[in-house]
Amino acid sequence: MSGDQQVAVVTGGSRGMGAAIVRDLAARGFRVVVASRKLGACEAVAAEIRREFGVAAIGVACHVGRWEDCDALIDRTLAEFGRIDVLVNNAGMSPLYPSLGEVTEELFDKVIGVNLKGPFRLAVRAGEEMARTYGGTIVNVSSTSAIEPHREEIPYAAAKAAVNTLTQGLARAFGPTVRVNSIMPGMFRTDIAKAWTEETMTLVERIALGRVAEAPEIVGAVRYLTSPDSSYTTGAVIKVDGGLVWAPA
C-alpha cells in the first residue's frame, strides 16, 4: 500500500521509533495522525511533517491505557479525514521496579493498560472501520521480551506476549480485507536507551550482528507490512532483533 492520500494513525508517534514511523509514512504520501499523551509534542511533529512532506498531518493527545482516549482518537481521525487505512500500535511503556514483590497493582495495571488494553481497543475500532469500508492494515509493535522475558520487565513481557496472540486472533477476525501483523524489535537506540540497566547492556554481547539497532532499521519492517509487498502477509509476528533471540515467536 502506498500513501496516495490514505490515512495512517501512529500511537507513541511524537518521539523515538514512533516519530520515525510517522516520517516514513509521510514520505510515502500518507496523511498522518500523530498520537501520544502530550498534545504539544504531537502537534510539533505534525507541523514538521506538513512542512517537510507537504501532506496533511494532525496531532492528537491520547493516553492509550484509557478506553475513552482510544475511542476519541479513532473518532477524531474519522471526523478529520473520513477514513483509516493504517494503524500502528507503537505506544508502550516498561517502567523499572525494585523487585517483583514491589510491583504495585497500580503499576501492573498501567503497564497492561498501555501495552495491551490500548492496542486491543484501537485495533478493534480501526479494524471494524477498515473492514466496513476500504480495508487496511494494522501493525502492532511487540518486543522480543514476549518470548525471552527478563526479571526487570515481566509485566511488560507478559503484555507483549499477549499482543502477539492478539495479532493472530485479529488477523482471523478481520480478514480478508484487513491485515494484522506484529513486529518484535530487539534492542534499538532511542531516548529509552537512557533507562537501560547494566544487565540490559550485557545483552548486546549476545546479538549476532554485534550492535544495537538504530530506529530506521526497525521502521523498515513497518514499511514492508504497510506496503503492497506484504499483501499475502497477515497474522505474522516478525522478529527484528539482529539475532538476539532465537526462540520462535
TrEMBL record:
InterPro entries hit by this protein: NAD(P)-bd_dom_sf, Sc_DH/Rdtase_CS, SDR_fam
CDD domains: SDR_c (cd05233)
Listed Pfam families: adh_short_C2
Superkingdom classification of source: Bacteria
Keywords, alphabetical: Oxidoreductase
Family, as annotated: Belongs to the short-chain dehydrogenases/reductases (SDR) family.
Protein known as: Glucose 1-dehydrogenase
